Amino acid sequence: MSGSSWPAVASSSKLKEKMKSSKILCVGAGGIGCELLKTLVLTGFEDIELIDLDTIETSNLNRQFLFRRRHVGESKAKVAAEAVRAFRPNAKITAHQGNVKDSKFDKEFFKRFALVLNGLDNVEARRHVNRLCLSAGVPLIESGTEGYLGQVTVHYRLKNAAGEATHVTECFECAPKQSRNKTYPVCTIRNTPDKPIHCIVWAKELLFARLFGRPDQVTDLDEGENKEEGEEAREEGPSAFLRQDGESVEAYAARIFKRVFTDDIENVLTMEDLWENRDPPSPLKLDEILAPSATGVGDSAASNGNAATIARSNGSAHAAGDSACKALGLTDAHRVWNLRENAQVFLESIRQFLEGRPGEVGEAVFDKEDDLAVEFVTAASNLRAAAYGIPQQSQFDAKGMAGNIIHAIATTNAIVGGLIVIEAMKLLAGVPEHSKATFIAKHVTNPKMKRLLNAVSPGEPSPKCAACGTARLELIIDTNKTTLSQLIDKVLRKKLSLVEPTVRTDAGFEYEEGEGLDEDEVAANAAKLPIALAALPGGGLGQGVIAHVEDQVQDFKVAIEITHQDDWDEEVHPEGFILGGSMPQPVSVANGDQSEAGPSAPDGSAAAEEDDDDLIIMEEPDLAQQQRDAKGKQKRSAEESEAPRKRQRVMGRSDDIIMLD
Amino acid sequence: MAARILIAGCSSGVAAEVAKNIALAGVGSLSLLDDALCKSEGAVCNFLIPADADQAQSVAEVSAATLREMNPLVKITALPGSLPPIPDVEFLRGFEVILITSAPFSTLLQYDAACRQLGVAFFMAASCGSTSFFFANLHSHEYSPLDTPAGEVPSKGVSAFPSLASALSQPWKTMRARYTHKLVYVLRVCADFESHAGRFPAAADLPALQERARELAADARVAASADPASAPPPRDLITEDVMPADILEEYVTGTVELPPVNAVLGGVLANEVLKAVSHKGEPVNNFFFFSLGDNVGLVENLGEVV
Question: Residue B268 is nearest to which of A88, A415, A660, comparing CB atoms?
Fold first, then answer.
């Protein structure tokens, strides 16, 4: 069985030797990274370097199985490296706690490796690694997961001894990324929500779980949160969210209301720096909302007294535990409730949960088919939205949004880790003709070819690709109103994922960033930032100018032809520009939040580096779409989905993946 | 949710993968049964066993200790002894799901039948070199779909499973060359061999097994031509070389486990164990195959529901 063809070669001693001696770079030690590292060392890889910026959090422990409670706060890369040595002491694993975008991980660094394996789940970092792999000529194995869906793809340009390309695949950026998935940083969810979905995530993942979910996990979480987020530590523990002995259900519900919509809002108002550039929230007062003179009175059948008394008068004092809306006479799921109704539903749904389903309290899991759970989440989310001045949602819409929150799943990470190693083995065994792009499906769809994992040949490179092809981009923008600084932030960093952009024109305009500049040069470049594009020195960046944009870190070059346009309709083009040609698609707006709320990232890149994959909020089922596209097609065309975008540290509670009810 | 899951035979890498995935998912309780010692050769791919583990302890004990660290919320028990060849009904009654990773066909068939009587979900799994598979028997299994389109009422589904005995005796004339996984023929021939010889085949039996496969394939072609109505179309008819020698050899000698294959099989299998317990999501009915050769994870339904 020691043939030279795949898969016989998989068990050959020659490949074993190769795996032992080849230097492998793993980027990411999170959900995929832990699984990948474990499978790599079990398979016989012994020389591995691992990069991850993050430290371990309590919320990682239910998927990132190399980490233990005692490791919380330590470097993921370092702990993962130690953990696998427990079962393979011979493995040499060098851990780097750092951002893969750091300049020390440059082209020369990448060149040292036989293969680069990505366990990242953030598109900016994945593009960055892709560009460095292209530049260094190192094969890249890419991965992504989205709930039960997953994919592993290979990207390389292999050459023979004469330097001729023998096997060439698409690069990670050849196919435009069309995902509209969004992820949100924890600070936004916890302190500075500005969209309805932020409130839904908070209501479902944090509050619902805290009131009705497993209490043992809440403990660790509160600790971790207070430490990490630097939030004022509270004297009371998580028991503040539990019903006290002798406390009536009504008093408990009212106390929770006060805690989360009055006290917590007042508390967050004291963090003044948060509100310098934002509208501060307003605490809600339950008495005022329920007072007979309150605004919005009269919309519902239950327009006087508090929710509990109404429920009683409706004859549901025994609390069936199936629907607060039924008890309150709110029958139209498409109508957005007013503030009073939201408060009533909030109180009544807590009451029904406690009285109607006492057995579930403490281990309930949100289910979008559970009316009471959806009602609670809708009301809690809307109340929070009201405090923050965010539009509120109907029960129907809130249900859809809550149902689209996707949790990372340990088994998918494990499968993806295995598939990455299989592709790595093929490349080391010298059988790239057997390389596959593999897709994990949620369930079998084709009754004839019942496949849970489907594999196709890697895609062809796109000549139009900005990263590996010969693209010229077209930028339409208001060159009189847009400053250089805006161009760099909105277009070059956010849209093109550049780290240290340099801009030059043939006429002599020049802008540089990065190391190797003296103070005068830095000052001269900085002075150009607030100037409108057309007015810049050296001929400027006006109508018809071709800007040569480069990123030396990424070894990325592209020419951008500029077209001026006045009058932008914000509704149609909220970004205020159009970037045409083949290019990486925009990164989700969530990254804007990250740079302002992120820990200490001067340019937002550190925050964007987060490679955890706790929670994905989907607006489009992209990976599913991609799988459909791949099906039956050996060559995938333009529709490769972007990796799941995800957020980290959004509420540790969110990722108690309890797949069982 | 107090699901009780038993993994019998937890030396292998596949068992370790499944156990890890189940422990992380946080089900009620997981019991491990395997009295092999940590130093045993079969346990090299079990990453739950630290290199410095007490070599006199069983793989079940050491694995359970690691899993407890991984998720302190899940009750994880190492049971003494090993799987009795004859099922003990009282013992089996204590579980909702059992997974057997290594046992002779005679034992597997008895456990499958006993589980059917008790309504205990039965899984068996093996990773053998470049190929791997698991078999599931959830008997009559009700489930709700994983996701229902907004506004629709979720419709309950029922999946009826054939017994292992029926699955292993599906007539070859009904097999379709293009679709049926090669390992099906291997399993069938080896089960057949064991029922006659009273033991699992060894490397020396490979020629006899090949011969048996040729016979069965030839019989199938004769049967198919005698009854064209129920036979597959001619291009799907199996040929005498239907069973590749390398896959047969890997399965029979059974010494090589490839960790990436374990990871894939263990991930899919853990999902199925969790589905069996949660009754959420359409289950795999009743074989799943994953092969290194094509990276395809294939579901097949073999046998008949009685």
Answer: A415
